[in-house]
Design a protein that fits this description.
Strand content: 25-35%
Structural class: alpha+beta
Largest sheet: 8 strands, mixed
Order of helices and strands: HEEEEEEEEEEEEEEEEEEE
Helix content: 10-25%
Distance between the termini: 115 Å
């Protein structure tokens, strides 16, 4: 009996071509979908990074602006600044009781910071700002021995050798450097001649605050012939760590731009890369010319005649994605106060404009 069943020996050429074509279409579709989803994810991640960079950068700057001039002390002309070595070219921070905010237009050098293209250099054409204030958590005085140059505080402290300190009472204020901090017996010492900056005298009295028979000593290097006198700070005094800062846009090691902050650490300035992905910073200063704490005009740094009249600051930041090739094409954007002219980027990074205003809480 013959077997009438046909045995399948393979596919025809036509069937194979149809199968291959369908496979190519399916694989191509899946690949296109994968690439599209991957690009969408990269774009969303870049947009998130760009937004986060702008918001974070503004919050850092705004917090210090709101603290500007806050030293825990009343405004006074009786300031005994006994810091020994103050370079007017680089030590922008040394005048704790001068204007609390000073700005630098893009064509003005920020003292102590190089403008250039190297890592850590300030980017030419971007604005910078310096802000002076003290730590909000201060200390009260249990005892002050001016001859021993020693303060005993009322609570444990984390102050360190070479920290710069602001102290004041109702009569005067002083700025000095700690020459020895002792956490065990809760004391700090302010002798002369030692430290990164050093004190020109162990005495902290302004001449207008001292008694007629108060002791003085020949100053080692007090500026402008200033001769401090013996002065005792009492229990009504306020002592705090001095914390001036500066902000600028700089080049980082990866070849991108970042927001940098300069802080005073142990009597020396330290520069820190704070927020990556900030391309530009432009600043306007709200000036109160009448003394009513209301802004009469917003000016660029070059047009501010009296920095003590600044009561608010408008910060305009341009953030961007650190990674390239995330936008569909070269982005066109507008940036800058009052700018209507559009700029077309030379790359495919995402860019976003952030603007905000921060008010100075403490009058200059």
């Amino acid at each position: 009996m013959k077997n009438s069943m046909h045995h399948q020996r393979g596919f025809s050429l036509l069937e194979l071509m149809i199968a291959v074509t369908l496979g190519i279409i399916i694989v191509g579709g899946v690949g296109t979908l994968f690439i599209s989803n991957q690009q969408t994810n990269r774009t969303q991640e870049a947009l998130s990074d760009t937004q986060e960079s702008g918001r974070l950068a503004f919050e850092f700057i705004a917090r210090d602006i709101r603290m500007a001039g806050s030293t825990g002390c009343p405004r006074t002309d009786r300031v005994a600044n006994v810091l020994e070595s103050k370079n007017s070219t680089t030590d922008w921070w040394a005048d704790a009781f001068g204007p609390s905010i000073i700005g630098y237009e893009g064509d003005k050098d920020l003292p102590g910071i190089t403008t250039g293209t190297a890592s850590g250099n300030r980017v030419a054409g971007t604005d910078a700002i310096t802000i002076r204030h003290s730590d909000t958590s201060g200390f009260s005085i249990a005892e002050h021995n001016p001859n021993a140059a020693q303060f005993k505080l009322n609570k444990p402290h984390t102050l360190k050798d070479n920290d710069v300190i602001v102290i004041c009472d109702s009569a005067q204020a002083s700025l000095f450097q700690i020459t020895n901090a002792n956490t065990a017996n809760v004391t700090i010492v302010h002798n002369e001649g030692t430290g990164n900056v050093g004190n020109c005298s162990k005495f902290l009295g302004h001449p207008d605050s001292c008694l007629a028979n108060a002791k003085t000593e020949k100053p080692r290097n007090c500026p402008d012939g200033f001769i401090p006198c013996e002065y005792t700070y009492g229990s009504d005094s306020s002592l705090a760590l001095y914390q001036p800062v500066a902000y600028f846009i700089g080049n980082n090691a990866a070849g991108n731009r970042s927001l940098y902050r300069v802080s005073l650490v142990a009597g020396a300035t330290a520069t820190q890369e704070l927020v990556e992905g900030v391309w530009d910073m432009q600043i306007l200063y709200g000036v109160d010319a009448t003394g009513d704490r209301q802004v009469d005009n917003y000016l660029t740094a070059n047009n501010v005649a009296n920095w003590s009249q600044v009561v608010s600051v408008q910060v305009n930041l341009l953030s961007y994605s650190p990674t390239d090739n995330v936008a569909a094409g070269k982005q066109t954007y507008t940036y800058g106060f009052g700018t209507t002219t559009a700029t077309t980027a030379t790359d495919r990074r995402l860019r976003k404009d952030f603007s905000g205003t921060a008010f100075v809480r403490t009058p200059n």
